[in-house]
Specification:
Layout lengths: L1 H6 L14 H12 L4 H11 L3 H10 L11 E6 L2 H5 L2 H12 L12 E6 L11 E3 L2 E3 L4 H9 L4 H8 L1
Parallel strand pairs: 1-2
Antiparallel strand pairs: 1-3, 3-4
Helix pairs in contact: 2-3, 3-4, 6-7
The structure holds FE2/S2 (inorganic) cluster (FES).
The site of FE2/S2 (inorganic) cluster (FES) has 12 residues, from helix 5.
């Protein structure tokens, strides 16, 4: 915990020691680590002198926060209005099924993580999926498998190197 506090020292600065900074602190820590560990949430709670359950409540309320690390290939399914109206929910369900993880989860080989995100700014291509830096336009449930097979899982990449 002490090690973590040192790591977060440049985020948990004295001028941020106020409960109104809770969300921005959570965002900064997540931006750095890719997710919010239990230890990080407790460090923030201790820093702000608020119960850990309060921090946990906020983290679970907003779906921008995640409890698990990002996969090597972070999959983000857009659920902004245009994408939602164009079948984004079906694409998200197909992605979860194909990866065999829930939203916010990560595959056992850490190859893929799955999140829903708000508008990614290319609504004309809805519904959109972003994997790493690549945007996949006009997605459909059948296209989910096609896209995923073009991306090698980590375990396959590692076994090929050996
Ligand atoms: S709503 Fe999905 S890109 Fe805008």
């Amino acid at each position: 915990m002490e090690e973590l506090k040192q790591e977060l020292a440049d985020i948990l600065k004295p001028d941020k020691k106020n409960r109104r900074h809770l969300i921005s602190l959570l965002q900064e820590v997540q931006q750095r680590s890719g997710y919010l560990s239990k230890e990080a949430m407790l460090a923030i709670a201790e820093f702000l002198d608020i119960p850990g359950s309060t921090v946990y409540g906020i983290v679970t309320f907003y779906n921008q926060f995640r409890f698990t690390p990002l996969g090597k290939h972070p999959v983000k399914v857009c659920m902004g209005t245009a994408c939602h109206l164009s079948g984004g929910k079906l694409v998200l369900e197909a992605m979860a099924r194909e990866l065999d993880i829930e939203v916010g989860g990560i595959t056992s080989d850490h190859g893929f993580s799955l999140d829903r995100v708000a508008c990614v700014g290319c609504c004309a291509l809805a519904p959109v999926v972003v994997i790493g830096d690549s945007v996949y336009p006009k997605m459909t449930p059948p296209k989910v498998e096609e896209v995923l097979v073009t991306i090698k899982p980590v375990s396959q990449e590692q076994s090929e190197k050996q």
